[in-house]
Design brief:
The structure holds two protein chains of two kinds. Chain A is of the alpha/beta class. Chain A has eleven helices and 24 strands. Among the domains of chain A are: about 140 residues, FAD/NAD(P)-binding domain, CATH 3.50.50; about 130 residues, FAD/NAD(P)-binding domain, CATH 3.50.50.60. A five-stranded parallel beta sheet of chain A has the order 5-2-1-9-20, with helices on one face. In chain A, strands 13-12-11-17 form a four-stranded parallel beta sheet, covered by helices on one side. A three-stranded antiparallel beta sheet of chain A has the order 6-7-8, with no helix packed on it. Chain B has one domain: Cytochrome c-like domain (Cytochrome Bc1 Complex, Chain D, domain 2, Orthogonal Bundle), CATH 1.10.760.10. Chain B is globular and about 30 Å long.
C-alpha cells in the first residue's frame, strides 16, 4: 500500500460507490471543532478519550476541579480492607498525554448563548459543543441535621476519595461489638446496589476483625436491586450480622445527631459506632445552575445523542441524567459517553446519529471470591431508553461457589478494562 | 496486475469498518462500543474476561449465537446475547474479527 496515487484511489472508490460505508469527505471541515467537557469521571473521561481516538483533529478540553480521581466502583472494597484506596485512584496524566487539555479548575457557570464556560479562576472557555458529566450533588438538610459538617463525622462516602478513607478509618477504630448504621435514601440515587454491596464488604471486614459487631441498613425503600442474591449471600457468609429495615417498617432516616452519633427514623433512635449516611441526591450543581434539570433535580436528554432537552448543543451524561430505565452507574455513563461521542461526530459531519443498543453490567462483590451480577440491555423505543429484556437479568439464586468466583474474577477484569479505557 | 492489487487494497480499506472516516462510526463499531467496556478497547482484555480482537468472524458468531440459545457455558454472556438480533450479532462478529490481534 505504499503507492496510492489519486487516479488509482478514484478508480477504487468508483468500484465501491454503492458501498454503504463510502461517505463524503467531511472530515477536513471538522478540524478545529471545540469540545468542552465538564467533569472528569466515568462519563467525561470516557467521552474525551473516545473522541480523541476517533478524531485527532478535535480541540478537546476537560474541566475537572480535582487533580486526582477515585472511582466509586470498587470503593466498597477499600471499606472492606480488600485493597488500599491508591489502587482505585487515578491522575489525569495519561488523559493529558493523549492530547486532551485537562483544566483542573471548577466550572462555575455556563452561558449557552455566548457558548462559554466560566471557570473558578476567572477565565472563560469557548465551546462549539459542551458536554456536562457532573455526577451528583447532595441535597443537604433533607435529613434533619445532616449537612457538609455532619458528613465529616457521619461520612456519606458516596463520592469516593477522602470520604472513603474517613469511613475506612472509622471502621478500623470502632470497638468490637459496635453498631454500623448505613442510611439509604429513596430512589433515584447513584449506584442502586451500592449500599448493599457496602454492607456486605463491611461485614467481611468485621467478621474477621470485630465479629461481635452488627450492621443495620436503614432504607427509605421497601425493596432493592439483586435483593434475593444479597440476602442469600448474607445468610451464607454473614449470618446474623446484617439487618435490613425497609421504609414501611420505619427504615427511612429522618434525622441525625452527629455529636451523639444517633440516627433517627420515625420510630427508633439508633446509637451508632459508625454512621454512614447516604443523603438524597440530584444532578451536579453546574447542571442545576444552568437550568438543565428544569427544576426536577435531574436532566432530561435525547436518548440517542444525550443532547439536553433544554439547550441544543449542550449534552449531559451519566448520573446527572434521566436516562429512561438506565440506572445511574459508571458502566451506564461510559456507554452513554460513547453514544454521545458518536452523535457529536455525526453532528460535526452534518449527518444524523444512529441509535445503538446500550448495556449496563453491574457486579456486586460480597467477599473477594464471591460476586454476582445484573445485566441490562437498552434500546431506544418511544423516545426513551427501555430494557430489551426483563427476565433472567441476574445471576441465578443457588449458583455454585465456582460461578460466584468466576463473577468475582470478571468484576476485577471489568474494572481493569474500563479504567484502562479512561485513564490508561 | 499492480493496478488490480491496488484497487483491491483500496476497496478493503474503504470497506473496513472503523477506518473509513474519522467522523463516522459503522454499525458494528457502534454496537461494539458497549462490549469494550468489559472486553477492552478493540476487544483487548486484561485479566479474566477474554480478548475478542481478531477472532474469526465465524467463531465469534457461532459463540454469540450459542450464548443466545443458552447452549454454551458462560458467566454472563448467555444473558447479554439475548439483547441482540441476528444482523446485530453478525455486525458485532464482523467488527471484532476486523480488530488487529496484539
Amino acid at each position: 500500500m505504499k503507492v496510492l496515487n489519486r487516479r488509482n484511489f478514484i478508480l477504487g472508490s468508483a468500484a465501491t460507490a454503492s458501498a454503504p460505508f463510502v461517505l463524503a469527505p467531511v472530515y477536513a471541515a471538522a478540524r478545529g471543532a471545540r469540545i468542552v467537557i465538564i467533569g472528569g469521571g466515568f462519563g467525561g473521561v470516557s467521552l474525551a478519550r473516545y473522541l480523541r481516538r476517533h478524531d485527532p483533529g478535535l480541540a478537546i478540553t476537560l474541566i475537572e476541579r480535582d487533580a486526582q480521581y477515585t472511582t466509586c466502583p470498587f470503593s466498597n472494597g477499600v471499606l472492606g480492607g480488600l485493597y488500599p484506596i491508591s489502587q482505585i485512584s487515578f491522575t489525569y496524566a495519561k488523559v493529558k498525554a493523549a492530547g486532551i487539555d485537562v483544566v483542573n479548575e471548577e466550572a462555575v457557570n455556563i452561558d449557552p448563548s455566548a457558548k462559554t464556560v466560566a471557570l473558578g479562576g476567572g477565565r472563560t472557555v469557548k465551546f462549539d459543543y459542551l458536554v456536562l458529566s457532573p455526577g451528583i450533588d447532595f441535597i443537604w438538610d433533607s435529613i434533619k441535621g445532616y449537612n457538609e459538617q455532619a458528613a465529616e463525622v457521619m461520612p456519606h462516602a458516596w463520592k469516593a476519595g477522602a470520604q472513603t478513607s474517613l469511613l475506612r478509618r472509622q471502621l478500623e477504630s470502632m470497638p468490637d461489638g459496635g453498631l454500623v448504621v448505613i442510611g439509604v435514601p429513596a430512589m433515584p440515587y447513584r449506584c442502586p446496589p451500592g449500599p448493599y454491596e457496602r454492607a456486605s464488604l463491611i461485614a467481611y471486614y468485621l467478621k474477621a476483625n470485630k465479629p461481635k459487631s452488627k450492621i443495620i441498613i436503614l432504607d427509605a425503600s421497601d425493596a432493592f436491586i439483586k435483593q434475593d442474591l444479597f440476602m442469600e449471600a448474607w445468610h451464607r457468609l454473614y449470618p446474623g450480622m446484617i439487618e435490613w429495615v425497609p421504609g414501611s417498617k420505619s427504615g427511612k432516616v429522618l434525622a441525625v445527631n452527629p455529636s451523639t452519633l444517633t440516627v433517627s427514623t420515625g420510630f427508633d433512635d439508633y446509637k451508632a459506632a459508625v454512621a454512614n449516611i447516604i443523603p438524597p441526591q440530584r444532578a451536579g450543581a453546574i447542571a442545576v445552575r444552568a437550568g438543565l434539570d428544569q427544576g426536577t433535580g435531574y436532566c432530561a436528554i435525547d436518548p440517542v445523542s444525550f443532547e439536553s432537552r433544554v439547550h441544543k448543543g449542550i449534552y449531559v451524561l451519566g448520573d446527572a441524567t434521566i436516562a429512561g430505565e438506565m440506572p445511574k452507574s459508571g458502566f451506564s455513563a461510559n456507554g452513554q459517553a460513547k453514544a454521545c461521542g458518536r452523535a457529536i461526530l455525526a453532528a460535526i459531519a452534518d449527518t444524523a446519529a444512529t441509535p445503538a443498543k446500550l448495556l449496563n453490567i453491574c457486579y456486586s462483590t460480597v467477599d473477594p471470591n464471591y460476586a454476582f451480577s445484573i445485566v441490562d440491555g437498552f434500546a431506544v423505543t418511544d423516545d426513551s431508553l427501555h430494557l430489551t429484556f426483563e427476565d433472567t437479568r441476574t445471576t441465578p439464586i443457588g449458583a455454585s461457589d465456582d460461578e460466584h468466583s468466576r463473577e468475582a474474577q470478571s468484576a476485577k477484569s471489568w474494572y481493569a478494562n474500563i479504567t484502562a479505557e479512561m485513564f490508561g | 496486475m499492480r493496478n488490480l492489487l491496488l484497487q483491491v487494497g483500496v476497496i478493503a480499506l474503504i470497506m473496513a469498518p472503523g477506518i473509513v472516516n474519522a467522523a463516522q462510526v459503522s454499525n458494528g463499531e457502534a454496537l461494539g462500543d458497549a462490549c469494550t467496556s468489559c472486553h477492552g478497547i478493540d476487544g483487548h482484555s486484561k485479566g479474566y474476561i477474554p480478548s475478542i480482537a481478531g477472532v474469526s468472524k465465524a467463531t465469534l458468531l457461532q459463540e454469540l449465537k450459542a450464548f443466545r440459545a443458552q447452549s454454551a457455558q458462560a458467566t454472563i454472556m448467555n444473558r447479554i446475547a439475548r439483547a441482540y438480533t441476528d444482523p446485530e450479532l453478525e455486525a458485532l462478529a464482523e467488527y471484532f474479527s476486523s480488530r488487529p490481534r496484539r
